[in-house]
Amino acid sequence: MGFSALVVRKDEESGKTSAEVETLELTDLPEAEVTVAVEYSTVNYKDGLCIGPGGGLVRKYPHVPGIDFAGTVEASDDDRYKPGDKVVLTGWRVGEAHWGGYSQKARVKADWLVPLPDGLDTRQAMAVGTAGFTAMLAVMALEDHGIKPGPVLVTGAAGGVGSVATAILAALGHKVAAVTGRPEQADYLTSLGATQIVAREELNETTKRPLESETWGGCVDAVGGPMLARVLGQMEYGASVAAVGLAGGANLPATVIPFLLRGVNLLGIDSVMQPYDNRVRAWTRIAKDLPMDKLEAMIHPAGLSDLPKLGSEILRGQVKGRVVVDVA
Ligand code: NDP
To answer: Which of 126, 133, 161, 45 has the alpha carbon at shortest distance from 324?
Structure first.
């Protein structure tokens, strides 16, 4: 029986891509051990790239994007999963090099799946999505290195990673300073638990001083670029920055002085190749430490046909909170 999927095709002559909802058959899906009836997916920056020309991420066309999904196992050749199991998938280049979650059915390797933790349903799992999962990895990395007394700074706070990081850190009892370039999102960020709003321009200005006042007890950074360089010089002695994203640029115009004189740690966070045990640890923590009413306030519902528009919006930094795509 046919099912719906967002398919990106490339015109070989012009090199242009187009994305449309099409009807596919099970035989169209790639070979792998587990077939999942996808219920929900979401929209990430990488999805924006892959719905469009791919930005070098897509290996071959036609392609089904969607770098994460949650759903129910329909068939499995692997002992770890059986029909009816609820699962979530993020990373492993699914939706880039392998067909992804913008489809009512997906076929993937058993190694890539994580059982949905108790306390989360498939819709909530995709409200969290890769962005929220990565935010939790960042919080865990900060905890593993010790969060200092000052407020924890979250950059790109009104975005997906930032929103979830803000809600988790606040629920854990930390003071959260939220950096945003959208002042109109201040009430939203306060509702998630931020106790201080910092204007993006304040941290985008460059300074020649490698060290400023010791202000932040930790930082989840979704922005990178000159803002990250500036933040490094404002960290408390021994505090850590979890570097998650590059919404503000991939370059890092910084000095090593904060590392040498203040023992600041710069912690790299990768969600794609994260080992299984840490994935389970992060999803378990999400179910425990992310208040579900806060998560609900971040959700913007969408369907498969909304994806081309949403893909270009996320590339322009115009998506607030978490888009949940109802695939079924
Ligand atoms: P979003 O687009 O939802 O959020 C990014 C936010 O960054 C925006 O909402 C905006 O926040 C801020 N921002 C955008 N442009 C700029 C700019 N030029 N200067 C400063 N701030 C800016 O994306 P996500 O939250 O989903 O992802 C954030 C980053 O993390 C992306 O770069 C993404 O690629 C990366 N990422 C990395 C992962 C990993 O495994 N390491 C996994 C998932 C995401 P505001 O409006 O509040 O200022």
So the answer is: 126
